[in-house]
Amino acid sequence: xxxxxxxxxxxxxxxxxxxxxxxxxxVDGCPPALPxxxxxxxxHLDRRRPGQSRFxxxxxxxxxxxIVSGIFQDPASGAQVTTGTPIALLIDxxxxxxxxxxxxxxxxxxxxxxxxxxxxxxLRDYRxxxxxxxxxxxxxxxxxxxxxxxxxxxxxxxxxxxxxTETIDRTRWDWDEVDNNxxxxxxxxxxxxxxxxxxxxxxxxxSVGAVIEVVADGVPPGLGAPIYGKLDADxxxxxxxxxxxxxxxxxxxxAAATLTGEANSDEMRMGNDGRPIFLSNQAGGILGxxxxxxxxxxxxxVKPTSSILAPRASIDxxxxxxxxxxxxxxxxxxxxxxxxxxxxxxxCVIADHYLRQRGQVGAPPSWPFPPSAP
Length: 374
Ligand SMILES: Cc1cc2nc3c(=O)[nH]c(=O)nc-3n(C[C@H](O)[C@H](O)[C@H](O)COP(=O)(O)O)c2cc1C
Hints:
By secondary structure, this protein is an alpha+beta fold. The protein has seven helices and 18 strands.
């Protein structure tokens, strides 16, 4: 049984716990001859890294990545490239403070995985949440950096569009703003508001949830497959696998249920370049489980951090009723750092389906078909 691997042809296995010596991943199936440096992977890890503002956990992890295998200096170009063999990426844990977790060694945090791990395995690494900690997601971000290289012209971006009950004004959406504020928020005005909003929540010992939107441009048409290989199903599974995610939608998502057939149909016209133009994108770029060449748009809802200072009723592992107030270093809104994680997961799924499409179909059919074709 293996529950730590995802993807078929672009296959990622992650390992490690929050307070173990290191975390990392093995990326298997990456094509050869793709230029790949540690600096490129580090760029993405730095966006997820903790302790960068007062709005995320103060755990100090440099998240410095090492490429341990799968690369070689190309004799022809001199560039460091992938070899086609497994790429192992290693990130040391350096700032564990296990004594902070003595209290939860026997008590269960409501909303966290403590009880569920105990009742399944009979024991758990309670230090920092062990394997249930989002430390593991650093490995996914590293794998995502490799995935981005696989599909030529692919761009995957994400942004925080809601925190608690507060949504952004989409007319002010500016991708350039996303890396200009501590929330990955595309609405500069709302980002300013979030500072006071989240400060108040943090100081009261509470936490809040968020919604993240992930967008992929440059996705070739034809990725995905009917029924059990649906691209949208794999995207949903990948995003849902991120810690604290409780909902995923593609395109219009749940709002599609409120639309009429006319409003929901993405009408089609022919573009001057001989490719179709869709007049809207309620489908989020996927029809029949297969990409249409439109932008892929997905959103996911992240619940509020369950480790909060505010006292909560709970039980301990001996079945006794107790109260718990979680100290230690926690994100008041885990949705913020989920932004680069969402990007990484979408990039991995698209890379996997790109290679699967190449494996099954080879060169894509030449569309549009000539008038002589049936
Ligand atoms: C980036 C990120 C950081 C997180 N940090 C914390 C944290 O500091 N404290 C906490 O209780 N949960 C945190 N979580 C959420 C837990 O890992 C998660 O709720 C827990 O593993 C239970 O899994 P589930 O919520 O998916 O059911 C974080 C999640 C993400 C995505």
